[in-house]
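Reposting from the mailing list since nobody answered there.

I have sequence plus structure tokens for a pair of proteins and want to know whether others read the tokens the same way I do. The first protein:
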Amino acid sequence: MGTRLNIVSVAIKNIRRKVIRSVLLLLAVTVVTGTIFSATLFISSMRNALRIGTNRLGADVLVVPDKYESEARSALLSGKPESFYMDRSVLDKVKKVEGVKSVSAQLFIKPTNFTCCFNVNTFLVAFNPKTDFTVSPWLANHLGKPLKGNEIIVGRLVPVAVGDTIPFYGTSFKVKGIMEATGMDFFDRSVFMTMNAAYSMAGESQSRAIQPISINRNQISAVLVKDAAGYSPDRVAIKIESAIPGIKAIASGKVISTVRNQLAGLLKGIVAASFIIWVLALLMMGFAFYMIVNERQRELGLMMAMGAKKRHIFGLIMNEAIWISLPGGILGLAVGSALLYLFKDMLRNSMKLPYLLPGAQTLAELVVGAVVFAVLTGILSSLIPAAMASRMEPYEAVRKGE
């Protein structure tokens, strides 16, 4: 035990003796660890948001007007406020299609303003409490009762508090609850109200609002569909499109798979770039440790002449690598996390993808994995130089080092 402590002490003294070189090696580990950690966390956050958002949506197929497929996809993935309508008769027609288990209508409304004083990117979504399977489960679990009259619930990113009253199109609504974050703006930036409240708001807007909205009770924006047992969403979507003209049936799995394909392509690029950076760091650090061993041959030879074993010399070089890599990995975590925090909104907006940090357990696993990776990087880079140092003959080492 005492020998190992001496090796650690000597290794730390050697690191301090060559401060500039040690700092450069530490920064190399910082760059590699920070890059890989932030990229992994970003991808994990997108996957987490997709999983939670898909579960919250609850629908296998989304039926929208034929000309508004791209708008519907944009609304679903990025929460971009959109207004488009079709006749309510589509709902009854969808019910009759083979493979359809249950349906529910929704109404999408793009508000002209959020409050009297400022604008936000908010999306109004109206649902039917009797048939809904997107918002109603949350209401049952958190409020224990359905919405009544002009009561609403809002997404996590809507800047209001429970009990606040906010106006839309001249009608005031009271906030009854705030939903958990999902990472998908369709939920996090939306205001959910009942269909009756939305139709009443539209009717009263003609006399109350500066910019009235024209919606009648025969109009809906989308039909959410759950497929029956034994039917796939893709098959049900095809059947719906064949049976009903003028509509587009979007299998929610296809929307998600499109995003997953984007993520897969992004992941491949990140892995390739990270691998190149890692290899360059390994080569740089390996060369640095080779130079360290080469210039300290006399010192190492004298240590062996005084009784140090090969394993002690090997352990000395490895300890130096570990004590450089460990703080480098921790610093990389801090820098990577800070950069991701600063630029995540810009990245997700440019890619139009959902984002939600994973749970505490996953975060802990990523942090531990990053630190272990940093230490392994240091160990691998010093492995060959350490082996070379341990095989030196004391006399030859002292002679070459003079």
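The second protein, same order (residues first, tokens after):
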Amino acid sequence: MPETNILHIIDTLGVGGAEKVMVGCVNGLPELKHHVIYLGGSDAMKKFLPDSCKVTSLNLRSKFDLMRCVMAVRKYIRKNNIDVVHSHLFMGSLVARLATPKKVKLYTTIHSLASRNYFANSRIARWIEKRVYRPHHNIIAICHEVFDDYNKCIGVKGPYTVLYNYVDDKYYQADYKRAAFKDEFRMVAVGNLKKAKNYMYLLEAFRYMPDSVSLDIYGAGPLEHELQEVITRYSLNVRLCGVRDDIQNVLPKYDAFIMSSVFEGQPISLLEAMACGLPAILSDIPVLREATNNKGVFYDLNNVKDLVNKVEAILSHKVDLDEIARSNFERVKRVAGRDNYMYLLSKLYLASEPSRFKQPRTAFVKTLAPRLHSPS
């Protein structure tokens, strides 16, 4: 059987959810020949790609440099006999759609709510997306909420798949974590320090938190100095801990995972925490309810005292964290298994070829197999 060449195109190789998924796909399907093109910026995730994967940076300098990148990708596709292109994020997908000939299969993964992210304040970006997205292009949405939002914002024109993100095997613990806190309740948050993560809400809430409650935030980003200034000014029991490559070893040390995002796609950091057995304390937005199947402690983003009250209820054991942790742990095993994800992705890549991958014997795959849509 001839070698199948897969070209992945993404904005950067920085540390982020989309980048982690893309790198995981390369490592998870070693039977295929993978190529990666990134437009520029950070290459922090490059070290996790196998030596067999050819990696190319286009060094995109500005939006006026876009057509050079398009021509470079078009030439690359021809030269390397690319069979499938898989793009991620807005600029990478724009280049991929302009560069990929119709005879080459193109998949674009939608990682977040389009109406709240790429197209929130740009009619031009939305117009461009509608123009370059064609009926023969394939959409992969990471959850139903993301798909519905893209459909309303842009309009789905052709084939699509709802395929939940996966969690790497190294995150899964043997069992969920039982609530055992006494003198201190330790929460953890993971995510880039940017506006959408809404960390300022958590800092405001911590002005009213009991002294026994602490928060460690893992991540980096443009708001680091602003957040640290607030933490220092009010002497909050919050630490900014930077980026860790071994976050799977860090998460199990905490009592609960917290997320305050105003919008999300299907956050890998939440799924990873669930796989580590932690209960989830989450902003009350539809995507997070879908990710957890409504099993979590949800709080109102318009009222910081709501979070404080719910944490105090946890401290007084009025909330059954064990049941939440158990439910989160069982759900992530059911919907975010790595083998399931790779099998389903391989079915998309090799749709016109005999499958080289054995179907895992799980209810998740059997449920998804007819249309590759995730269960509720």
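Reply #1 (J.P.):
I read it the same way you do. Confidence is low (pLDDT under 50) at residues 361-376.
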